[in-house]
Amino acid sequence: MGDHYDHLAQVVLNNLENQHDWTRLSLHKDPSRPRILLFGLPTTRMYVHPDEQVEIIKAEAALGNGQRLPQPPEFEWVLPVHVVERTTVDGFAAVFDSIDALPPGAEEEESGGMEDGAEWKKWRTTKRRKRILLAIVDDDSTVSYYFLHDGIVKPRQN
């Protein structure tokens, strides 16, 4: 992996840490992986799967009194790319093939509080699908973020 990918990863790591207050950030370099990835913990929950959303609504209705379930942040994978890179579906598929749904060490943390067997909590561990936060870096070091999912994901309910 070249200096170019190292530089992109450092720009994104710096942006997540200093502009978005992510914690527990780590570079994930592996010669068997097609790219350098990062993972870390954002300050707030970034994504709720549509089926999980339905389970949360049911669980909150069962609580009554307008009570809300806590939604702590989840560890996320991050893939740095440069804005002029030619990305392909095959390239993204290779990245997805090289990762697990949860970044290293995240499963132990995410499974905390699963004792009650609540269906909505399973989306944080066993039902979680692979997703990557694509970090697109421009020449001026501006970073834009978009979620990529492995496969088709139905739209969220608003």
What does this structure look like?
The structure is a single chain. The chain is of the alpha+beta class and 158 residues long. It has a single domain, classed as Trna Endonuclease, Chain: A, domain 1 (3-Layer(aba) Sandwich), CATH 3.40.1350. Helix content is 28%, strand content 20%. It is built from 4 helices and 5 strands, in the order H-E-E-H-E-H-H-E-E. The protein has helices at 3-18, 50-63, 89-97, 106-110, and strands at residues 23-28, 37-41, 76-82, 131-137, 143-149. Strands 1-2-3-4-5 form a 5-stranded mixed sheet, with helices on one face. A hairpin with an 8-residue loop joins strand 1 (23-28) and strand 2 (37-41). The longest helix has 16 residues, at 3-18. The mean pLDDT is 85.
Quickly list its features:
28% helix, single chain, 158 residues, 5 strands, five-stranded mixed sheet, alpha+beta, Trna Endonuclease, Chain: A, domain 1, 4 helices
Rounded to an integer, what's the Rg over CA atoms? 17 Å
Quaternary structure type:
single chain
Q: Residue share in helices?
A: 25-40%
Number of domains: 1
Strand order of the largest sheet: 1-2-3-4-5
Q: Which class in CATH terms?
A: Alpha Beta
Mean pLDDT: 85
The termini sit apart by: 41 Å
Low-confidence stretches: none
Spatial shape: elongated
Backbone structural class? alpha+beta
Biggest sheet overview: 5 strands, mixed
Tell me what the CATH architecture is. 3-Layer(aba) Sandwich
Total strands: the figure is: 5
Any idea of the CATH topology?
Trna Endonuclease, Chain: A, domain 1
Beta-strand content:
15-25%
Could you give the order of the helices and strands? Answer: HEEHEHHEE
Count, helices: 4
